[in-house]
Amino acid sequence: DITKCSQLQTLVLNEIDSQSLENLLIGLTSLNNLSSLSIHVGRDSNKITIYNLIFHLSILKHCKISFEENVPLEYLPMSKSPSSSIEHLIINDNYNLNEVEAILSYVPHIRRLSIEYQHRPYPQAALIFLTVLNNLTHVCVTGDRLTNVGIEQFIKKYFRQIKVLHISANRSLSCSGTWLKPILSYLPHVHVFDFADANMRLCGRAVKVYRSIYDPHYLSFSDVRQWFFTHEPMSDESLHKLFCSIQPHKANYFVLTRESNFNTYTCHVEAALDSVHHVIIPDEYTSINCLKYFPKATEVTVCNYSSIDSNWFANNKIQCSIPLAQLTNLTINTYSIHLHVIVDMLQFTPNIHTLILTLMKTWPREFSSLQESETFQLVSNQNKIKNLTIKTYYKLHMIKILINLCRELEYISFGTSVQSLEPTIRYLLSKRNESTCHLSSLYIFGVNAMWIEKLQTLIESTELLDDYLIKVVNDKFYLKL
Question: Of 21, 105, 424, 468, which residue is most buried, by most CB within 10 angstroms?
Fold first, then answer.
């Protein structure tokens, strides 16, 4: 009974079904010391009910909500008598600016509001990023439901507050000035323009500002001539972030794309990006430029929809940009790849503990000889992979090879398969050998009622385990060994 925890100050809730969550939130209203709440909301949830229950927690100061289901917040009415005590609110979901305004109407004491939506395998350029400074009030909104008209209306409504305007555009949002110019007249206090992650070839104003700083022969804007700007390179294509600050905001990821057309300017020099921990490589290794170095990178995502060969990580351009031996997380998001290529990549990344394989198509001809290779034996003995996620079509022989490769594996996640799920479960549980002795948890995603019944029956009828715990949350099936 949560109501008995009268001294509880911080609560974190993960993987709880919607009905239980609503009942729990009702019980939290009696806790007079609860100041921090973090929850993950699964599918088929009533977002309006959840928000209303959270806004009635009278003592709450900090709240983080992550919604798994991308459903618009269309029917949350504007609050006429806001009473929430929340000062810091972080929401991982996808809203338009009308929905953002509705949320703001419930939190009169809000100091920081962050609403962010990531729906891609790697971070995309957001449509807008606004920071509103008024009595330490910060508002950050990103997503793919934002429009020029919505941004303009939002800015006009809050024009007395906005002091810093950050614009981050992808190809669907033009920052050429057709919509920005009318807005400028509503911003009497603005003193910072940040063209963050903007496509420089599409954003004429950003190009002019950029050139006015680094090219003395180019006429600068009169309204920015006296400002101090610095920059932080974010990717090769969208070259710079511009700031009115000596210490710019430090992004923790970097997207390597095509070579920039602006490399003739003096700012395009060798740089060690200390803030970057996650490097995303969406193209072939030929796009990697040794002028960029990421000394603190611990995670790499490879998003390549063409084939990758065995020499991919052996390429000198990658090794001079990324400290491969330092990496702990590797995500491979590619359409077609041989398993031996994955083994070769792991040879150069011996300290990986989390491996995610997405959209992978493997080829059966290599299975018989791969495990006998010298490289496979070396990698299987040295790698430290403990967490393996397979987000692709799979077969039992592929699972066997990956299990034999990752001998310290503790957690494995994969989806359903008509042909391969049951044989895979039997293999993982029936014989605990050197390759599976560390395995402690299985997570199967995308299950429905039929699969849940099949899995429970399989585990119970075959008596594969003496001691285990099964937990089902929405479309997720967890088996604790």
Answer: 424
Q: Is residue 24 part of a domain?
A: yes
CB-based contacts of 466, cutoff 8 Å, min separation 6: none
Are the CB atoms for 291 and 325 separated by under 8 Å? no
pTM score: 0.67
Do 246 and 150 share a structural domain? yes
Q: How far apart are the C-alpha atoms of 336 and 305, rounded to whole Å?
A: 7
Position 244 in a domain: yes
Q: Strands of 469-473's sheet, edge to edge?
A: 253-255, 278-281, 299-304, 329-334, 354-358, 387-391, 411-415, 441-445, 476-480, 469-473
What is the domain range of residue 194?
118-268
Identify the domain boundary among 28, 61, 96: 96
Task: For residues 365 and 400, give the distance between their C-alpha atoms in angstroms, rounded to a whole number.
Answer: 15
Q: In total, how many domains does the chain have?
A: 2
- Same-domain status, 66 and 171: no
What are the pLDDT tens digits along the chain (481 aa)? 788 888 999 999 887 888 888 999 999 999 999 999 999 888 888 899 999 999 999 899 999 998 888 777 778 888 888 889 999 988 888 777 778 888 888 988 888 777 776 544 434 433 444 445 455 456 666 666 666 666 677 777 765 565 655 554 444 444 445 555 666 666 666 555 554 444 444 344 444 544 554 444 444 444 443 344 444 444 444 444 443 333 343 567 777 755 433 344 344 445 667 778 888 887 555 445 556 778 899 999 887 656 666 677 777 677 878 899 999 999 988 877 778 888 989 999 999 999 999 866 665 556 668 888 899 999 999 999 999 999 888 889 889 999 999 999 999 999 999 999 999 998 998 766 666 778 999 999 999 999 999 999 988 876 777 788 999 888 899 999 8
Q: Is 287 helix (H, G, I), strand (E, B) or coil?
A: helix
Do residue 248 and residue 133 come from a single domain?
yes
Question: Which positions ≥6 away from 158 have C-beta within 8 Å?
Answer: 132
Determine the Cα–Cα distance for residues 171 and 202; give it in Å rounded to an integer: 8
Examine the domain organization and report whether 136 and 74 are in the same domain.
no
In this structure, are 222 and 82 located in the same domain? no
